Amino acid sequence: MLDSALLQKLIDDGRVRVLDETLSTNRDARDWLMDDAQHGEMVIASRQTGGRGRLGRSFSSPEGGLYMSLILKTTAAPGAVTTLCAVSVRRAILKLTGIETDIKWVNDLLLDGKKICGILCESAFSGSESLGMIAGIGVNVYGNQLPTELQDIARSVYPDHAHAPIRLEALAAFIRAEILAGLAHLPAHMDEYRQHCITLGKAVYRAENGETHEGQALDTTNEGALIIRENGILRTIGYGEVSIRPI
Ligand code: BTN
């Protein structure tokens, strides 16, 4: 269970909504943004029953993870914020645990080749008026409660621990501080992103119209798009899926 007094002490410049269980903190943050939420305010939960991932997928969210959604009143591109979140989570894990993680384009953090973190940045509108962005972050921190079908591709940072060896509240506050500071200096985080992005330099595969295309990941743009070379042609992939394993 999260300690809301501790969280509010660590985060003294904005409100934090702390929940034991919710459907999705991204949904809660969006509702709050429609109401009166301010830049930097945050929703955090101990578990989610309908955690959302990219491309319409679900995000398994058992107890033992960190599930947070940060409200950002920004006009920055979603890809720029997603890459900033990835760098911020990476820094927070390194600082608090000493553990190095890899970034897999665009929004995953891997530990020993398995996913420990996913990021879902969603823009929020009221009619045609942009209200801001929700940066949703899920980190599998401790325990081994991920569904069996995910065990080959995902893990937690501390699978053998029944309790978190680090404070989830401290991890959340560190991540939030890094994101808020980094937003003021976009795209300064991109060198660090590229340095730790294991997708770059690798063969990548993508499916289009039922065909598989093989290319090589060369670089990212400062807005987080992936630049690949496919049959001698340069392409910029802004969203969607590329795989580093043959499809
Ligand atoms: C992905 O891996 O595709 C992105 C996963 C993002 C999950 C986080 S957990 C907190 C926030 N609330 C959600 O419903 N999703 C994001």
Briefly say what this structure is.
With 247 residues, the chain is α+β, with helices and mostly antiparallel strands. The protein contains five helices and eleven strands.
What can you tell me about this protein's structure?
- This protein has 247 residues and is α+β, with helices and mostly antiparallel strands.
- The protein folds into 2 domains: 4-195, BirA Bifunctional Protein, domain 2 (2-Layer Sandwich), CATH 3.30.930.10; 203-243, Roll (SH3 type barrels).
- It is built from 5 helices and 11 strands, in the order H-E-H-E-E-H-E-E-E-E-H-H-E-E-E-E.
- The protein has helices at 4-10, 25-35, 78-97, 168-183, 190-196, and strands at 16-22, 42-48, 65-72, 102-104, 108-111, 114-126, 129-140, 203-208, 211-220, 226-230, 233-237.
- The chain has a 7-stranded mixed beta sheet, sandwiched between helices.
- A hairpin with a 2-residue loop joins strand 10 (226-230) and strand 11 (233-237).
- The longest helix has 20 residues, at 78-97.
- It is globular and about 55 Å long.
- The N and C termini lie far apart (40 Å).
- The site of biotin has 20 residues, from helix 2, strand 3, strand 6 and strand 7.
